[in-house]
Amino acid sequence: MSNYHQYSRKKILSKIQQSGIIGLGGSGYPTAKKIKNSKKTKIFIINAVECDPYVTKDHCLIHNKTKEIIKGILIFKYLLNPSKILIGINDNNKKSIFLLKKELKKYKTKIEIHIIKNCYPFGNEKQLIEILTKKQVPSNKYPNSIGILVQNINTILSTYNAIFKGRPLTHITISIYGNLIKKPGNYLVPIGTPINFLLNEVGLKKTEIQDIILDGFFMGKKINNLSIPIFKNNHSIIAFQKNKKTKKKMEELPCINCNLCSQVCPINLLPQHLYRLIQHKKHKETHQYHLLDCIECNACTYVCPSRIQLVKYYKNEKKIIKKKLKEKEFNSLTKKRFEKKQNRLLKNDIFISKEKNKSIIDDDYINKNSSNDKYKSIVSKAIKRARLKKVNIKIKTK
What we know:
Layout: H1 9-18, H2 31-37, E1 43-48, H3 57-64, H4 66-80, E2 84-90, H5 94-104, E3 112-116, H6 125-133, E4 148-152, H7 153-164, E5 171-177, E6 185-190, H8 195-201, E7 210-214, E8 221-222, E9 236-241, H9 260-264, H10 271-279, H11 283-288, H12 299-303, H13 310-397
Parallel strand pairs: 1-2, 1-4, 2-3, 5-9
Antiparallel strand pairs: 5-6, 7-8, 7-9
Helix pairs in contact: 1-2, 4-7, 10-13
């Protein structure tokens, strides 16, 4: 499908769907579905911002696959037909910026490159939209609600491979770094490869005190089971040795209301107030204070002098809120179904009562007619018997 302009939008989307392409920036949302849902896209943003420490896979792809990435962007331009195309990239990667500018000169399409300060968590979708367009995505809504679509560099490259080369998404680029890794770098890895196999290949130094973090230093998770496989939406593995002093876990202390967490929150939430509400199990209030908008960047956790694992509490509370929202939705649906059923039964009862009335009237009419017929037959039989008797009497008298 190298001449994709000859094919319809529907056919290209089905090809993307069949190739198993998803958002490779971490969300894992199906790309074809995302494009279908954003029918009126005014601005298309390419996310090449990597603010998480040690993660450099996007810049590695730009260095090695610049032509393919630009062609991938043009595929999205054909599918979305946006009025603006923007590329967001870190200011600390000058080589990537130079390569993109050089390649874009070959094309007539206007694609703007916006250089962003390397600051965490500017790589997040909503923060990137606000920096580039000065628009805010409404609470509990997606960027397509304001006519914006964001795609990661990896997703664009995998779309190019699917359309031009017919390759499904079977490999991903992953950053492997840390002071325990002998050969740190970016590797093209088959999906489903066990983590312990990867770490052995890059030369993991085995020590007693070590941390293996999957998917970023700030937003990632510490993993103990290294036999788990690599999935499509994984982007980094960090292995480092902890200091012996930090071996023991520090205990949480009471909140001192220092307000540092509110100052660093990129969404402008009130982390300390949300924490208090969670402690008192006020689920309705936590939802009203937009807890679901939290991007779990862990900035509040890192600055907290009381060492409170705020994001840990937020994650659990989010699960409870989502469960309650599902229950509420289910209850409203069951109520609507019940009301519809009641209305339907009422209509049926009215119809049945009318039919019964009709049948009663008809039965009365039939009974009357049938009784007359019976009466006539009885009379006629009686007359016949009387006549026969008369004949018999006459015969005897003779």
